[in-house]
Amino acid sequence: MTTHSPSPLRIGLVGTGPWARNTQAPALAAHPDAVLSGVWGRRPEAARALAAAHGTTAYTGEAGIDELFATSDALAFALPPDVQAPLAARAAATGRHLLMDKPVATTVAGAREVARAVERSGVASVVFCTLRFAPRTAAWISEQAAADEWFTARAEWIGALFAPGATSEYAASPWRREKGGLWDVGPHVLSVLIPVLGDVTHLTAARGRSDTTHLILRHTSGASSTVTLSLGAPEGAVGTTVELRGEQGVVTLPQWDGAVEAFGAAVDALVESARTGEPHPCDVRFGLRLTELLAEAEERAGE
Q1: Same domain, residue pair 236 and 270
Q2: Per-residue model confidence as pLDDT tens digits over 30-68
Q3: Are 135 and 155 in contact (CB under 8 A)?
Q4: Domain count, the chain
Q5: 118: helix, coil or strand?
Q6: pLDDT tens figures, 238-252
Q7: What CATH code is carried by the domain that includes residue 121?
Q8: Which of 123, 172, 141, 158 is nearest to 244 (CA)?
Q9: Helix (H, G, I), strand (E, B) or coil at 176
């Protein structure tokens, strides 16, 4: 008897910026269970260049996004969050699975719109929080979630993206400039703490220098955590750590590998969810919860 493996999932890429170019397009083009079905961009020249680099079709304009939807089973998004959200809701309404970037949106209404569209259509969704999919950190999160009760946690994600002389191409992102570390790296930290300590039941927030935001969180497990987030620190202050403390001792989040491998694992998760109908823990509902918490933190920090 001849057995047939499932057909690869046709995934269209929406966006042509640095994240699409450096991470998503290479991961999609190399994935054994996916086909990069096309690239859509607002700038025709950027769409053509990225599509040509990976042997696929370029789309642009309003008609182009509909054409990409029509030739795809799923869409991967590499757009600013509040551009991503309405397009993702529109894609879900046409029956396309979603591989979204974090945060899903920077407004609760925007994130809720996507979650409702996914629920109505029954499509699969995955939100790419890097640490939930990078192999070493994903394994560490699962291990700590299965451990005995944790007492407290401390997380710091301090970057110098906006420091004078910084050369990262991501620093040119207008939404990152506007929303800062809370919205850009906050989802990463919360995506680690929540699976281990439980959902957040109470939070307080305060501003520091530059875009720095400090959070104090209480979790459903009874544990508390403290979080410091910034993209505007000086070069000498940068560093990332997540530390858990409990009866069993102190453990620290390991370093993770590159984003391309992690994004490939997110594609694995979307393919599995699309084929089985089983939701992934890091789906659009989780993305909505992250937006709710970050919006509350933003409001409280401004009080």
Answers
A1: no
A2: 999 999 999 999 999 999 999 999 999 999 999 999 999
A3: no
A4: 2
A5: helix
A6: 999 999 999 989 999
A7: 3.40.50.720
A8: 141
A9: helix
